[in-house]
Every structure is written in structure tokens, then in C-alpha cells.
Amino acid sequence: MPRNLSAWIDLTLLLIVMLFVIVMLGYYNSFLAATSLVVWVCLAAFARERCRDRSVRFERYTKSVIANVNELMNYAMERLPQAIFVVDPEGRIQWASTQAEAFLGHAPEHGTDIKDDWPNVILEPIWGTEGEYVFVHEDHYFQVKYRPVKFAVHQPEYMVLFVEDVTHVEELRSEYNASRTVLCYIQIDNYDEVMQGQTEAERAGLLLAVNQALGSWLKNLGGFLKRVSEDLYVAVLDRKSLDRAMTEKFDVLDKVRQIQSTNRLPVTLSMGVAVAEEQTLAELGRQAQAGLDLALGRGGDQVAVALGGKTQFFGGKAKAVEKHTRVKARVVAHAIEEIMESADAVYIMGHHNEDYDSFGAAVGIAEMAKALDKPTHIILSDMNEGISKIEEYLRTKEEYQNLLVHADDIGALDAISPVLFVVDTHIPHLVADPSLLERVQQVVVIDHHRRSESFIKNPLLVYIEPASSSTSELVTELLMYFSDDMRVSRLAATALYSGIVVDTKNFAVQTGVRTFDAAAYLRRSGADPVVVRHLFRSDYDTTVALARAEARAQFFAGGLIATSIPETIPNIQVIAAQTADSLLRIENVRMSIVCFALTEDTVGISARSTGEMNVQVIMEHFGGGGHQNVAGAQVKGRAVDDVLAEAMEEAKAYIKEFDQDESDSAAGHQKAR
Fold first, then answer.
1. pLDDT digits over 335-347, tens only?
2. Which of 571, 644, 552, 662 is nearest to 605 (CA)?
């Protein structure tokens, strides 16, 4: 069908047909044909005039509509709440709407860089794509919706930015986030120790001082505090107050630590903090309790804040307090005996690249299993050069022939109900054989390192004592209470003794009364210090590498000394650990850091401290962990020098903050006096 805005063409066709009919009519009746022709002429004239009039009216109408539309479009462009910018790849403004002047504060000029007015505008990462983002400028939030545009093939590509002020919306969002509920569990983590030997009046005075410190802290934050038991508190505050507490780095820990009992022990707190996001109140409570357990497992005197799916830690400056009683060791020993009795096979493993503490603790657990006549295997990783001497020594003894196996040699488990003991670590990916954690349902964890956020899932029993010198010390205490007729072999006693010697640096670091009690028990059981000294002797190449690393060391103000071992050499972890220990003996050194090439693509870090500072906090920055005095980490895909530079910056910042806090605490203590 014909489609045209003009009706005259259609009428012309009709008139032609009518004229043809009139001509045909003339053959039959001329009078009637003449009359019809007159009517046809009048009708044609009328149709022509009518079409001309309609055409004039339609043209006038279209011109009016176009004029109005242009006027409306211009009006809309001027009144839009958004500012529109067209920019080139260099960020220069090619065109801007009139509303842009209200956003920028001045009329934008052609060719000027949009970042001159808005430095936070993002262009390069989003060029050629569609999307939106929000940026901040001078206390205002601006939402940018960006679209690519290309006018012609020969012209360059541009981006159109639709900018809208969303400050009010963002302020509402900030107010909403700031008002979210925060649940905090607070516990006096050394309550039994500080209260030991106190009179009722002294107990009441000590608790009053702690209550006043916590009450004043929560009052300043605008929170609510409720004491629910002798050593446990529950606090409720909002996210805004939590941000303030995090900015102040929970200084209440330092204030409470200044409170001392008559036995001169400082009071320390541990906190688990959870922020309400999308979880229920029941889940919020479980999350706060898990944070408190994590803080206590790391040695106490710190705060674990669960925020945004991650856990942040604050504090951790005080040493973990040694427990004066072995009640927990006795209870755990009896529990382990029951677990082993119900199992038909015992598997034991430590961390990857075992050291003497890990191996000694494993041998001690094996002694327990042997006393119950249980099939026992110690699983070793594929990298264990550090214990090669004692491993070879054990393999020569008939009673230990089938005890040691490598992770690759573990096939299908024949046992129906096996139990797996993990010693000297609690991080899943650091164990000798991570796959064994999935194959064995019953897992027991024994460790002396501060608890990390990453932990073995669903363990049957957990025994973590950060105040202990070593895992070998913990296992030795368990042997004391395991059975009345328990007899530790001379070789097992020597292995345990070597583990304590290594982690205490020959009884110089992290030793307590219970450490020497454990060493005395092992000596009575036949531990041979001469054999231990033989195990720790180093060869010529190791001695030379150690000397080179020490000569390369740099000393920094504040007591930091750092060095690197860029060469990939055998037994590198042992050399790095010995270097870190050796550097710590230098005058005025409080912290030592050694970075070394563990493999071609992995850099290892060994960190040591004299005890006043917590090197574990620094190593956690690199995804590692450890103890307050001894910690380490492994970094993949980076150069040794780059890792060393970053580690030194982290250590310097930590030392500066630590010294500042110490001076503030000392000033506050003098003022209080």
C-alpha cells in the first residue's frame, strides 16, 4: 500500500477512475455524461483546494511542534539535576551542559581538564565501558554514570559523564552504617592469676578499678556495659563508636594494664567484637564469642574485631601469662587417653618443613600411643632437612622402624576410626599433609603459637597455650599425667628436650617455671644434652652463610636490625633462624628480621624479638604468624629485597607506635602517682 503524508495522490487516482467511468457513460447517454462531468470538475476543484489547505495547516503544525520540542529539550537540558560532560581520552572537556556550572562553581571552558576541578574523577580504568561510581570532592559525594560515544568513523571516541550530587543519599547511608549495632564480649583473661593470694578487700578494690576503667571508656563512647560474671562483661555500642575505638586502638587495654594487684601482676583484657551487618542477633553473639576465643587463643591482652568478613587485631603487647597450675594439662592428658583408647590407629604430624619442636612433640605423642599399643605413624613433609640428623638416628632403632612415614607414602587409610594429632601448628595449609585433615574426622590440635584467624575446622580437642615455651613442653606435661605407669624412652626424652632447647634458645627466651620442670622431667627420663648439642652442630658451609648474613645486617634506630640471604642454599630456614637469633644478641637490638630465598619464587621471613615487642603482629601482615618472640612468614612471587624493604617499614612503624604508647603509659602512670 502507498504510504505518503499527502492525500492528493490518493484523490487523483480516484478522480481518474471516476473520469474513466464518465467517458464510458458518454457512449450511452451524453446528457447524463455532461452532467457528471460538471460534477466531476467541481469535485476535483474542491478536493484540490481542500488538500492544499490541509497541507498548509499540517506544515504550520509541524513547525510549531518542532519549535516547541526544541524549546522543551533546551529547557530540560538546562533544568536537569545532572551535569553532562563530554570528554576526550585525555580528560579534556569537549562539551558541558549549563548545569555543570552549578556543580563546578564556574562555567567550564572547552578544552580544560576535568580533573583540574575534580581530581578524584576516574577516567582511564573505565574508558570505553558503561557503568557508574561515586567519588568525593570537598565533602560532597558525586555519582557518575558513564557511557562511551563515537560520532563518526573518522572522529575520536569520547565519553559522556552524567554527574549527579548524591551527598544526601551517601550521608544517609553513612548514618545508617554508623548506627549499626556492635556487640562486644570483654573478659579479664588472667583473672585467676591476678586474684591469687588476694584478700576480699583487695579483690573488691581490683575489680572496682577495672569496672571504673571499662565504665569510663564505654561512657565516653556512648555505649552500654553489663557485667555478667566475675571476669566477663558484655558491651553494646554503635559502629560510629567502634570506629572511634579502633582509631584510638582500644587504649582501654593500656589503661587496664596499668592496674596491678598486690602480687604485681598487671590486669589484661581480651575482647571479641562483632558488627551487625546481615546476620541475625544469634549469629552476632556467636561471632563475638568466636572473636573472644580467638583473642584468648592468641595469648590475650588484645581485641579481635570481625568486620566486613575479615578479622582485625588490636593490642597484643603484653606477654602471655604463664599458668601456675597444671590442672588443664591433667584434664587434657586424660581426655587424650580416652580418645586414643577409642581409636584404632593414631596419626601424628606437625607443620611443613618440621623443626625440632614439631618433631619432638610428635615423638612424645607417639610415646603415648605406644603405651596403649596403638598402631602409630608420624607423617613427615617432603621438606624436612632441619631434622635430618634425628630422623636418621630414629630410623636406626628397631622400635621406631615403621614409625616415620612421608606424606606421599600415605595411601588409603585402613583404620575404621583413626585419630589425627596436629602439633606445633593450627593453620590447615601449613601442616605436613593437608589432605589428611579431610580424610580423618577426629583431629586433636596441640600448639603453643598464638591463635590465627585460619584454624583447622571442627577439631575434636584443642590445647593451645601461648604462654608455653614450646609444643614439646606442652607434650611433656601431658606425658606426666597421661598414665601412672608411663615410661618415656631415652630417645623420646631427648627429642622432646631438643624441641624445648630450640624454641627457648637454650633456655634464654620465653622460659618459665614450668619450662624447667618439664626439662627436669625429661632429664630424669634419660634426655642426653650431649646428643642434643651434636644435633645442633652446623657444617662449614652453614657457618660461612651465617657469617655472611650477619655481615650484611643493617641496624636502625629503635632497636631494629635486618638482613637478607638472597642465595638459595640448602638448610636455608635453619640458617635464617640462627641468623635472627644471633643478631638478637647484639647490644641495643630489640627486634631482628631476616629475609631469605626459600625457593626460586618464595621468600621466607624470620623475625625475633627480645620479648617486649610482638613480632607476630608484623608477620601477620605478610600472611604469617607464630609467637610473640618468634614468628615467620612466606611470600610468593616477590624479590627478597622488596620483601625486606616492606618488612623493615612495617617494623619501624610498629616500633615507633610501641615506643609512643610506652611513653604515654609511663607519663600517665607518673601522673597517677
1. 899 899 988 899 9
2. 644
